[in-house]
Design a protein that fits this description.
Blueprint: H1 14-17, H2 27-31, H3 33-55, H4 65-90, H5 98-122, H6 129-156, H7 162-182, H8 208-213, H9 218-226, H10 243-271, H11 285-289, H12 301-326, H13 329-342, H14 348-395, H15 400-404, H16 408-426, H17 431-450, H18 454-498, H19 500-506, H20 509-559, H21 567-608, E1 627-637, E2 644-654, E3 658-662, H22 669-677, E4 681-689, E5 693-696, H23 707-712, H24 719-728, H25 732-737, H26 755-769, E6 773-777, H27 785-796, E7 806-810, E8 822-827, E9 830-835, H28 837-843, H29 846-863, H30 866-873, H31 891-907, H32 913-931, H33 933-948, H34 951-964, H35 966-994, H36 1006-1052, H37 1055-1060, H38 1063-1105, H39 1110-1140, H40 1143-1154, H41 1156-1161, H42 1165-1214, H43 1221-1232, H44 1234-1251, H45 1253-1262, E10 1287-1295, E11 1302-1311, E12 1316-1320, H46 1327-1334, E13 1340-1347, E14 1350-1351, H47 1357-1361, E15 1364-1367, E16 1376-1377, H48 1378-1382, H49 1390-1399, H50 1403-1408, E17 1416-1417, H51 1426-1440, E18 1444-1448, H52 1456-1469, E19 1474-1478, E20 1490-1495, E21 1498-1503, H53 1505-1511, H54 1514-1521
Parallel strand pairs: 3-7, 3-8, 5-6, 6-7, 12-19, 12-20, 15-18, 18-19
Antiparallel strand pairs: 1-2, 1-4, 8-9, 10-11, 10-13, 13-14, 16-17, 20-21
Helix pairs in contact: 3-5, 3-6, 4-5, 4-7, 6-7, 9-39, 10-12, 10-14, 12-14, 13-14, 13-21, 13-43, 14-16, 14-42, 16-21, 16-40, 17-21, 18-20, 18-38, 20-21, 20-36, 21-43, 31-32, 34-36, 35-36, 35-38, 35-43, 36-38, 36-45, 38-43, 38-44, 38-45, 39-42, 39-44, 40-42, 42-43, 42-44, 49-51, 51-52, 53-54
Length: 1525
């Protein structure tokens, strides 16, 4: 190329460029290569980039000032270049060829740039990476020439070529400005699809540099630092990440994949034609198609996933490849640096170059790595969105037989667990090829330095892999065991909190405390094992790199005494070993991840390949005129292979008629409706429905939304129609009862509605939808007789709202049959007869028999429960006024209501007892919580604050350290210091060793060197192990102590606390928070300490080697601290938002699966798919900034790390005169690994801050106020107390809680021993409060209660409560043996227990149980009937048999039989005791000694029953109401 330049000018000259103190490039090189590099770059990338621009159209950008300036500058640059060209042309002979070629090429390139600037604007590119790199390269090339020109001018004292000198400086200035302008981005384009969204993500409009460094995220980091982020602060999702874009892409590929498989099978089908000569009926369709099962190939979901997401993901993989290769540059540079220090003749500029190269290589690696992670995580996020969307859409169309093959829980798991696995895998999937690549490269380079000795080190690494695998397996099994214990502990806690009042009344807390602590002990012992195992794995993890280095070096120096370990070999090898460490540890994890993902893939593939419902099962056109429903010869089953359920059904339903379908249980009535909806497999025949359909299923499906939303169900709202519907479906009264009217949020599965209410809401939804055909599956069975009549008259019947619509009603209620137009009688899946009521009665066949069967039942039904059910349904009516006053704010009323509801639910034929209970509990809780709102509100606010600010943290940390034990905490810190001291010692020893003089080609004392090195290393290992053990020990101690305190406090907490606090909140403390204290905090602390000390020791080593470094520590620390504060505040809140928005996805999904038939019947699939998409998008909206925040943090922290590398190297170069190579190697190799630990330290700080809140929350509930002590040793009543059973109240008043009104006011009364006193009064008069006072569940406001001369306020609670006996309203049983439920402390003999059972009429029943007294009661005693539970409570009372018995009567009739048993037993067994009965039914107390009538908390009347009746006062009116007088 030298012929292009001036004669005598060389392209390359060693003396000019290398062997000099002032390096420069030759003029020829500058004029050719430096000018051509940027031009070549642009012309090579242009064709591809142009194609890319042609295909991407984001709308055009208007001409901005920025764009104008760029264009003008581009043209000016072209003019400047060509001025040069024309200047040369003027004197053609005088110049060499290069003076024409270079300006020409550069000028044309500048024109191309100007074209690109405009073309990008038209295609909507806001910031261009291609041009950014072009200007960067141009500028870097120009800087060299710029320096040269100035040096020449200075050395020669004049400018040789003034014209070109001037044009070059103009050119340089213009390039500099262009580069500067290129860093800014243009405004968003017009007409772009992406710019919609109320709060668009700034990433879209960010410039290239901003994207590269994630600068666009800074806004959110600052916002999150100023105040906790909320939903409204989050950016909307980018278009290409949204469900409505991602899911259809995947489904399209999946459809293609399914079609390809089908095609292959068809080919296969033609190859082997089936035989048709089989005699016994046609073969099954599938058998014809596929001769054998093995030939069927399933469509592969993996291929669909790859086609959808691989292109984007592979861009990330390409980046990963670059990063892997770059990671080996720094060890080579370190090698050069050490040889530079070794060589006293090396030029200083060479050292500086190496330092800056190290910095640039590390910085480039950082940028590339984080871009790669961004690609991977975004792929993972899209993958999850797509899989969740695909599963959701599939679940709306799968057949019932397919649905039966997997439970709702399993399908939800596909969505939560399996989709999550894919998402987690994508971030590390590239390690599958990257780890082997890194390992091979590292080994190759190591071989160069140490030869075959590295095989020894490799052997150690390989041996550690199975060890790590075993540890992982063991810890997984421990995890499973521990989860079991945790579950049983939480279950028990749940029961204790649900039955806390009963525990207090019986004084049973200690027994249950022991049970909980027993489970906790097992849990902790497994935790201890797991922690020790963890300590072991930490030990191997920290000592592994050291062991590898030790074996390699030891083998290297002992194999051959000519092998000298110098600084280059030692430290370059160490830095290579450090690179090896990551892939070796990651590989096993990635492989296990892949294995898990393949399992998930299979499950997903199976689910997505399930059969779908055939939309053509039900035709939508007319077959016969005038008929809305036609079924001709319909034969149906639930699945292709299942038995036939409906056989040869023919029915025609005229438009506007009411048809009843009747028949015995299981004869196929519901199946008939399913067949009409197209939910069944149609084997033959035709079904047609004309018009739209509304469907009311047998088990009402209620969504977790407001009551109004449940009825309106996505239709446009018309208030008038809505009110009519409520009226018709008898829902008005219920709305008055519900706390929020029709805005009340209904819990999952309609938990806070009774069975009857749910059914009526379901019916109201159908009526409101105003369809043509109504399919009603027995909507009247869940409601009671008079409501059923109301609904039939107002809605379904001939005069109802639906008259004129076609109605098919499945029913058991015979009373309505005379009013229907047509009756279809089903027997075993066939229509046995059809016709009107009269016709069928006359035929006297199946129908007549059906009538005879059901008639008696119906009468019975009409008879008994009506009264009660009336209360259940029309709760608001006056009939109840003496029972329940719903507006009463007093807890006793709520309590009474709760009881009442419970009793009813026991009778309600619905069988939904459990949901009922929890509901009523919720309602009363809502009431109670509402009462205490003012207090709570402030408390909650404060709580939210403390969780956020930084200052409160220190005290929480201190609380945790106190729980660990201050001494142990100090010991742990000392151990960590020692282990790092040992590590630094070993490193310094190594650096000293490498400086040993070489005599005759060998080093002496090698054995001593190896020995000390090994000793230091093993000391470090042992210290690591000890510190891990100590930490595990301390963490477990803290966990035990914090849980024990919490439990103890909760059992001592007064009842009022439980009335105002939702149980969920307390359970959360025992579940999630205790779990965090058990497992998460110790682990996070350990990681934090490890990274902190690694970072610290790096600082120490670098500072010790190059003391100048101290100057930089402060500014770097400030930057670090700022980044860390911004990140922690933002990321913590993002994590919280992400987890809050995650559960709605799953609950909405499980709801959809259960209600899919209803959704399909109403044709609401699309709106539900949209709801699901929105929920997923909302979740991803908080997940995406979370990914970006980690990248943002990574780049900034690693930049600090790279600065440390740069300065460590720079100072080494500056002070090379008095530094030896060993120290330099040590200092720089330490600096090279600091970035990782800095990064993790911030993450751990963030995790610690989010998790330490658990300690605060547990602490808060461990310090609530407690009730009086259980036992006061100095004041214990005698064993035999109370002997007589006298009870007196002196001026006694009481209130439930501070700030509420008095419930009992100034009571004075005296009950003599052995008296039977009935306590009566209207609701809210304070009856239940009397019992609570006797047991001191609530404490006196003034006055006192004296029992047999002992003031009850002066003795311990357990002394008092264990001497009184109560038979409470609602029988509460705990899960455990029957024996434990009767006698939890094992105080009584077997004989006593059996006697009590005999007297309570349970002996026979218990004998009949296979396990007898050891019979396991389920939670809440669900596996005993209500009556039996009531009798168990009686048996408890008989066992205790104290002198005073309090009988809190059940609010509503349990069953009369049980009641009689209890009353007779009490009369005989407690003959000589004082009995106080809170009576709801007066007939039980008419024979009592005296009756106490309470009115508004005061004593109104107190005398014998006969005297009170004679007085004609309050008691008389109550007796009269009850019909006893």
């Amino acid at each position: 190329m030298e012929w292009l330049c001036d004669s005598g000018s060389r392209l390359w000259d060693h003396n000019v460029t290398i062997n000099t103190d002032n390096p420069d490039l030759t003029p020829c090189f500058q004029k050719t290569v430096l000018v051509w590099i940027p031009c070549v770059y642009l012309w090579v990338t242009f064709p591809l980039y142009f194609l890319y621009l042609r295909h991407s159209n984001r709308g055009y950008i208007r001409v901005t000032l920025l764009n104008r300036v760029k264009t003008v500058l581009g043209l000016l640059l072209w003019i400047v270049c060509w001025l040069d060209l024309f200047f040369s042309l003027a004197k053609v002979q005088a110049w060499a060829a290069v003076y024409f070629i270079s300006p020409l090429l550069l000028g044309v390139t500048m024109l191309l740039v100007t074209f690109l600037i405009q073309y990008e604007r038209l295609r909507g590119i806001q910031s261009s990476g291609v041009l950014f790199f072009f200007w960067l390269i141009t500028l870097l090339c120009a800087v060299i020439t710029f320096r040269s020109n100035i040096l020449v001018a200075l050395s020669e004292g004049s400018v040789p070529d003034v014209f070109r000198f001037t044009t070059f400086f103009i050119y340089f200035a213009l390039v500099l400005i262009q580069f500067f302008l290129c860093c800014f981005s243009e405004p968003p384009p017009y007409f772009s699809a992406a710019s919609s969204g109320e709060n668009p993500c700034p990433e879209l409009s960010a410039g290239f540099l901003s994207r590269l460094t994630f600068w666009w995220f800074t806004g959110m980091a600052i916002q999150g630092y100023k105040h906790p982020l909320e939903d409204k602060d989050l950016w909307s999702l980018n278009k290409e990440d949204r469900s409505d874009v991602v899911v259809p892409k995947l489904l399209k590929e999946w459809e293609k994949e399914k079609q390809n498989t089908r095609r292959k099978q068809e080919v296969l089908y033609t190859k082997c034609p089936p035989t048709y000569n089989n005699m016994d009926g046609e073969p099954h369709e599938a058998e014809v198609l596929f001769p054998s099962k093995d030939d069927q190939k399933k469509p592969s979901f993996l291929i669909a996933l790859c086609k959808t997401f691989a292109p984007y993901f592979l861009m990330g993989s390409a980046l990963k490849l670059c990063q892997d290769l770059l990671s080996f540059v720094n060890p080579q540079l370190l090698n050069m640096l050490i040889s530079f220090i070794n060589d006293p003749h090396a030029k200083t500029w060479w050292g500086y170059s190496i330092s800056f190269l190290m910095f640039f290589s590390a910085a480039l690696q950082t940028l590339i790595l984080h871009q790669h992670f961004q690609y991977c995580f975004v792929t993972g996020m899209r993958l999850r969105t797509a899989i969740v969307g695909a599963i959701y859409r599939k679940s709306l169309v799968i057949t019932n037989s397919a649905k039966r093959s997997s439970t709702v829980g399993e399908i939800v798991n596909l969505m939560s667990v399996d989709a999550q696995r894919f998402m987690d895998l994508t971030s590390f999937l590239n390690m599958l090829w990257s780890a082997p690549l890194q390992i091979c490269l590292a080994l190759y380079f190591l071989w160069q330095y140490l030869g075959p000795s590295i095989l020894a080190g490799l052997a150690v690494m390989i041996l550690l892999i199975p060890f790590n695998a075993v540890v992982a397996m063991k810890s997984r099994s421990f995890q499973a065991q521990q989860m079991q214990h945790k579950d049983s502990r939480i279950k028990l806690m749940n029961e204790i909190l649900n039955g806390i009042k009963v525990l207090k009344l019986y004084a049973w807390e200690p027994s249950f405390e022991q049970k909980v602590l027993g489970i906790r002990q097992k849990e902790l012992s497994i935790l201890r094992k797991a922690a020790y195992l963890n300590a072991l794995s930490t030990f191997t993890w920290t000592t592994a790199p050291f062991l590898v280095a030790l074996t390699t070096f030891a083998v290297y120096v002992t194999v051959d005494e000519n092998n000298v370990l110098d600084a280059q070999k030692a430290f370059v090898s160490l830095s290579l070993f450090n690179i090896l460490r990551f892939p070796l540890n990651m590989l096993p994890q990635v492989i296990s991840g892949v294995v898990q993902a393949t399992v998930s893939l299979k499950r997903l593939q199976n689910f997505l390949s399930h059969d779908e419902l055939d939309p053509t099962n039900v035709e939508k056109q007319k077959i016969a005129t005038g008929h809305a429903i036609t079924m001709v010869n319909g034969t149906f089953s639930w699945g292709k292979t299942d038995p036939v359920v409906l056989d040869g059904i023919n029915m025609m339903v005229p438009q506007g008629s009411l048809v009843a379908v009747v028949g015995h249980v299981g004869c196929g009535k519901s199946s008939l409706l399913s067949a009409l909806l197209g939910e069944m497999e149609k084997l033959e025949g035709r079904v047609a429905i004309q018009g739209s359909v509304a469907y009311v299923p047998q088990q009402a499906w209620i969504r977790n939304a407001s009551l109004k939303d449940n009825i309106v169900f996505g239709e446009p709202l018309s208030e008038q129609k809505y009110q009519q519907v409520l009226e018709a479906c008898a829902l008005i009264t219920d709305l008055n009862v519900l706390p929020g009217g029709d805005q009340t949020e209904i819990g999952e599965k309609g938990i806070n509605l009774s069975g009857g209410q749910k059914q009526r809401v379901s019916l109201a939804r159908a009526v409101y939808s105003d369809m043509d055909v109504y399919l009603l599956d027995d909507p009247l069975s869940a409601v009671d007789a008079h409501v059923a009549k109301h609904i039939f008259d107002k809605v379904i019947g001939p005069e109802g709202v639906l008259k004129g619509k076609t109605r098919v009603l499945v029913t058991h209620g015979i009373s309505f049959l005379p009013q229907v137009d047509q009756i279809v009688v089903l027997v075993n899946g066939k229509v046995s007869e059809m016709g009107s009521y009269q016709e069928l009665q006359n035929q006297n066949e199946a129908f007549a028999e059906f009538l005879r069967n059901y008639a008696q039942r119906d009468e019975v039904e009409e008879d008994e429960p009506t009264v009660l059910d009336e209360e259940q349904e029309f709760l608001g009516e006056d009939t109840l006024s003496d029972h329940i006053d719903l507006s009463d704010p007093e807890p006793s009323a709520a309590e009474a209501r709760k009881q009442f509801m419970r009793q009813i639910s026991m009778i309600s034929s619905d069988g939904e007892t459990s949901t009922w209970k929890s509901t009523r509990r919720r309602l009363s809780e809502k009431k109670k919580v509402a009462e205490s709102a003012p207090k709570n509100a402030s408390k909650d606010l404060i709580q939210a604050e403390t969780a956020e600010t930084g200052r409160v943290k220190l005290i929480v940390f201190w609380q945790y350290l106190k729980a660990v034990g201050p001494f142990i905490s100090v010991v742990i810190c000392i151990l960590y210091c020692c282990q790092n001291a040992a590590a630094i010692g070993a490193s310094f020893w190594l650096s000293d060793w490498t400086n040993d003089p070489v005599v005759n080609g060998t080093q002496h004392q090698t054995y001593m060197r190896v020995g000390v090195y090994a000793a230091l290393g093993f000391t470090q290992g042992i210290l690591v192990m000890t510190s891990s053990f100590t930490m595990a020990f301390g963490g477990l101690g803290a966990a035990r102590q914090l849980h024990a305190r919490l439990l103890d406090n909760k059992l001592h907490t007064p009842q009022a606390f439980f009335d105002t606090t939702p149980i969920g909140r307390i359970i959360n403390r025992f579940g999630k928070d205790v779990n965090v204290i058990d497992e998460v905090i110790p682990l996070t602390f350990r990681m934090f300490l490890m990274t902190f000390f690694v970072s610290l020791s790096t600082m120490i080593v670098v500072t010790a080697s190059t003391p100048w470094f101290t100057l930089l520590i402060v500014p770097l620390a400030i930057v670090y601290f700022l980044v860390q504060r911004f990140y922690v505040a933002t990321s913590r809140q993002l994590k919280r938002l992400e987890s809050i928005s995650r559960s709605p996805i799953y609950s909405h999904f499980s709801e959809t699966i259960t209600g899919s038939s209803v959704i399909r019947a109403y044709g609401r699939q699309n709106s539900f798919i949209l709801m699901n998409d929105n929920k997923v998008d909302t979740n991803q909206k908080s997940y995406y900034p979370g990914i970006a925040s980690n990248r943002w943090l990574g780049i900034r922290i690693e930049f600090i790390g790279n600065c440390i590398v740069l300065f460590a190297a720079l100072f080494a170069v500056i002070g090379r005169a008095h530094l030896n190579p060993g120290i330099v190697g040590l200092s720089v190799s330490y600096a090279l690994q600091v970035t990782m630990s800095l990064n993790w330290m911030v993450r751990m700080t963030s995790d610690l801050e989010s998790n330490i809140v658990a300690v605060e929350r547990v602490k808060e509930y461990s310090e609530t106020e407690t009730e009086a002590p259980w036992v006061i040793e100095s004041n214990r009543p005698p064993e035999s107390w109370p002997e007589k059973g006298n009870v007196e109240f002196n001026g006694y008043s009481v209130r439930y809680r501070e700030g509420l009104d008095l419930v009992l006011k100034d009571l004075h009364l005296n009950v003599h021993g052995g008296e039977k006193v009935g306590i009566v009064g209207r609701t809210g008069a304070g009856k239940s409060s009397m019992t609570l006072c006797l047991f001191r569940i609530i404490e006196a406001a003034q006055g006192e209660i004296i029992i047999d001369g002992v003031k009850i306020a002066d003795i311990g609670l357990h002394d008092l409560r264990s001497k009184l006996t109560i038979i409470p309203q609602d029988p509460v049983l705990f899960s455990g043996t029957l024996r434990m439920n009767l006698d939890p402390f094992n105080q009584y003999s077997e004989e006593d227990v059996w006697n009590a059972l005999e007297q309570s009429h349970l002996k026979q029943f218990v004998h009949s149980l296979p396990a007898g007294l050891e019979h396991e009661c389920s939670e809440g005693g669900e596996n005993l009937s209500v009556g039996q539970r009531q009798l168990v409570c009686l048996a408890r009372a008989l066992l205790r048999k104290t002198r005073i018995l309090i009988l809190d009567e059940a609010t509503a009739a349990i069953d009369l039989e049980t009641d009689d048993l209890i009353q007779s037993t009490i009369r005989t067994q407690f003959d000589n005791c004082t009995i106080l009965t809170i009576a709801h039914r007066l007939n039980t107390i008419m024979d009592y000694t005296r009756v106490l009538v309470l009115e508004k908390g005061r004593i109104a009347e107190f005398d014998t029953p006969s005297n009170l009746i004679a007085q004609k006062g309050i008691f008389y009116s109550m007796v009269k109401d009850a019909g006893l007088a």
